[in-house]
Write a structure and sequence with these properties.
The protein has helices spanning about 5-30, 40-50, 70-75, 155-160, 180-185, 200-205, 270-280, 305-310, 335-345, and strands at about 55, 55-60, 105-110, 115-120, 125, 165, 190-195, 210-215, 220, 225-230, 250-255, 260, 280-290, 315-320, 350, 360. By secondary structure, the protein is an alpha/beta fold. The protein has one domain (about 40-360): 4-Layer Sandwich (Metallo-beta-lactamase, Chain A). The strands form 3 sheets. A 7-stranded mixed beta sheet has the order 8-7-6-5-4-3-16. It has a 7-stranded mixed beta sheet with strand order 9-10-11-12-13-14-15, with helices on one face. Helix 8 packs across helix 9. The N and C termini lie far apart (about 70 Å).
């Protein structure tokens, strides 16, 4: 190779390296505020007193299994149907109807992914509202929504009765969204979050006196509604250097007449039996069913184990969530609901399939509606998801 060719080669490598550094710098600058903030002072001290805090981060009782080589293989064989090719049918949220309490005392409105409006015994709760165009710290990259947000913060503030609590399960971008929270920061509401997550909210302008941080099994009260922070098997982190420095959780909403369970993100683990024993039975269980893979079987339930989880927590009606909005895994986009329906039917579990935006009361669940297209998907036998370190079998 001539000296001139070597010189050209070095310049090309340098140019590529410079472009990479510029891209990294642009990402860091663009997403700096959305990355959130570390916990300090009294907040950090309280985290360190948690029995789940060890060696500078939170830990699961059963560690998460990850198979890097299997991840690469499954990535190479990802479904060609990971995203919809046509518009997803959604319903406009019936804000006029939601202006009056549900006759039964319990009503749910699925807003997509893990975002739910839960009306329970005279209280209104929003779970994991993530209404920005992308599940990302930046506007130019990251998973895009498949349909626009069905509620907006002005719509909620102007057309709905007051939201009593905004409940966050953990700080991953598809559950804790900077744009949404910053638009809500002046709401007269309570933000209920797991330990440490309040540092993000305070950094984004939410008043400290409106932030309630809970450890697993701790609770808070909104008038006569009890919100219990329940254990989950998952992780946290918004950058490469803050993994598991904030807690993750599910929640139980316990009213005078009704009980509802919200799983957040979780893998299957034995403590779900304890959740059901201590806090159940639940009139309704909102269970995550999507974004799973055999290479990381403990991060998410998967459809069949979602039905197991529903039975373990003693749910009566299962509401699938955490699907149908983002491309975050390698399976087909309709596969989670197809497999969840098959597993629920085998187990004799009542399950609903609301369209995004649909409101319903669990006492009179809507008829099953297959509103998604019929596209190829893998069965549980073809692509099983089995959690590790399950010491106890799933039980009803």
């Amino acid at each position: 190779m001539t000296q001139r060719k070597r010189s050209i080669g070095r310049r090309i490598v340098q140019a590529v390296g410079l472009l990479f550094l510029l891209a990294v710098a642009l990402t860091v600058i663009s997403g700096w505020t959305a990355f959130g903030h570390r916990a300090e002072g009294a907040r950090r001290a309280r985290m360190e007193r948690s029995p789940h805090w060890k060696n500078g981060h939170f830990v699961n009782p059963e560690p998460l299994d990850n198979d890097a080589w299997l991840t690469l293989r499954n990535m190479a064989h990802a479904s060609p149907y990971r995203s919809p090719t046509q518009a997803i049918p959604t319903l406009p949220v019936p804000v006029e109807r939601l202006g009056t309490p549900p006759p039964s005392g319990l009503r749910l409105t699925w807003l997509g992914h893990s975002s739910m409006l839960v009306e329970i015994d005279g209280h209104r709760i929003l779970t994991d509202p993530a209404w920005s165009p992308r599940a990302s710290p930046v506007t130019f990259a990251g998973p895009e929504r498949w349909f626009p947000p069905l509620l907006t913060t002005p719509m909620v503030k102007e057309k709905l009765p007051a939201i009593d609590a905004v409940v966050i399960s953990h700080d991953h971008y598809d559950h804790l969204d900077y744009g949404t929270i910053s638009a809500m920061k002046d709401w007269n509401t309570t933000f209920v979050v797991p330990l440490g997550v309040g540092a993000h909210l305070a950094y984004w302008g939410v008043p400290e006196d409106r932030i309630v941080e809970l450890d697993w099994w701790e609770s808070t009260h909104i008038r006569d509604l009890t919100i219990v922070c329940t254990p989950a098997r998952h992780a946290s982190g918004r950058t490469l250097i803050d993994n598991d420095t904030k807690l993750w959780a599910g929640y139980a909403f316990v009213g005078n007449e009704h009980r509802a369970y919200f799983s957040g993100d979780t893998g299957l683990f034995p403590v779900m039996n304890e959740i059901g024993t201590r806090l159940g039975p639940f009139d309704v269980a909102m269970i995550e069913i999507g974004e799973y893979d055999a290479a990381w079987p403990d991060w998410h339930l998967g459809p069949e184990q979602a039905v197991d989880a529903h039975r373990m927590v003693r749910g009566r009606l299962m509401v699938p969530m955490h699907w149908g909005l983002f491309n975050l895994a390698y399976h087909g986009w309709t596969e989670p609901i197809e497999r969840a329906l098959a597993a629920a039917d085998r187990a004799g579990v009542g399950i609903v399939t609301p369209k995004p935006g649909q409101s319903f009361e669990p006492v009179e669940p809507p008829a099953r509606d297959r509103w998604w297209p019929d596209v190829p998907w893998r069965t549980a036998q073809e692509a099983p998801v089995v959690a590790t370190q399950m010491k106890k079998p799933a039980s009803p």
